[in-house]
Amino acid sequence: MKHRTYTLLLWLCLPWLLLRLRWRARTEPAYRAHWGERFGRYAKHLVGDVVWMHAVSVGETRGAEPLIRALLAQGRHLVLTHMTPGGRAAARQLFADDIEQGRLVSVYLPYDYAFAVRRFLRHFRPRLGLIMETEVWPTLLRECQRRGLPVVLANARLSQKSAARGRRLGAVMQQSAARLSLVLAQTQADAERLKTLGARRVVVTGNLKFDVSVKAEAQALGLRWRQQIGQRPVLLLASTREAQGQQEEELWLQALQNRDWPQDLLLVLVPRHPQRFQAVAELTQRYGWPTQRRSSGETIAPQTRLWFGDSMGELGAYYTLADLAFVGGSLVPLGGQNLIEACAYGCPVLMGRSTYNFSQAVEDAVQAQAARLIDSAEQGAGLALQLLAAPGELLQMRNAAEQFCHLHRGATARTLETLERERLTLQ
Fold first, then answer.
1. Which of 37, 60, 65, 242 is catalytic?
2. Residue 268: helix, strand or coil by DSSP?
3. Contact, 320 vs 343, CB < 8 A?
């Protein structure tokens, strides 16, 4: 596909984009706000040495935190862009003081139309662009190149599935990858796949998510919950998702219903996306287990068997509470969610076989005996009950999880060192 064809298709998609915003706003009202930013119109400004960083949603924003804090400590001002309200909410939670003091602005990245991209670049005038993980927008990169703005793909990952999709896009993807000033890959496998798409300068620096610090307030909240429930065993189903008509929550609820699980076991269920909270809550009601919702603010009752985590930004607290966690997006073909955060809080992990988003991290965690892979929710339920009845084995997994994260730290320092060596800093 040539860039001209890509641009034409994007314009043809404009009515669909607007309809999609309205549709998403039905379940997530935040999608109704800031439409002007989607087309390059902004009210906020930054002055000084401005670095632009793009983190599409919640996971990328949280994963970028160590690098963002390092750049802020150097005296940089950041414009942090997102595509989802969840990304903006995560930025407000993590960087509230920096936003208040005018060191960081959190806004939407405009859609990939030339007029909108040019407005964005004229408004903020960044001197360096950092795009997190996998987001590559052809028009954006072309306009950055025309302005002489260096753009780095940081914490870059590319699964085999995504690489195959990129190759199908042909010339437009090759040109876009070649316009990147530098690619900082998570693993050697990611680096090799990125090179096949046309990236010219690729350096392996590791995964920034290993550098995300454990939040003291999250741990304190999780420990308060633990005080409420005493010695009850806790199984957490974290970041659960839906794909191809299958809901991971239902797969697990069915599997557990078929087993004689301990009467004191507390099952904690935390879906990945808030727009699914209501549907999942209705699903849990069909099983008839005594249930409470986190949003009620009530103390967890002794008779409660299922606690529904309908809250945002508290995953670290849930991991602190749990004895064992299943990390979702892995029993359905979505590539898995971030198990590194669970390990950082010392929580042993179960995952399904779909892990291409974190393939190297999952492989390393399994090898370190911090995580185990399952083929189905039925198998997972059996293994979970077995592990929860073996506290010594769980303690070994917990220690392995913490050690696993400790051994893989350092990507932030390597990223900054590489940027300086490649003369892409603002010094």
1. 60
2. strand
3. no
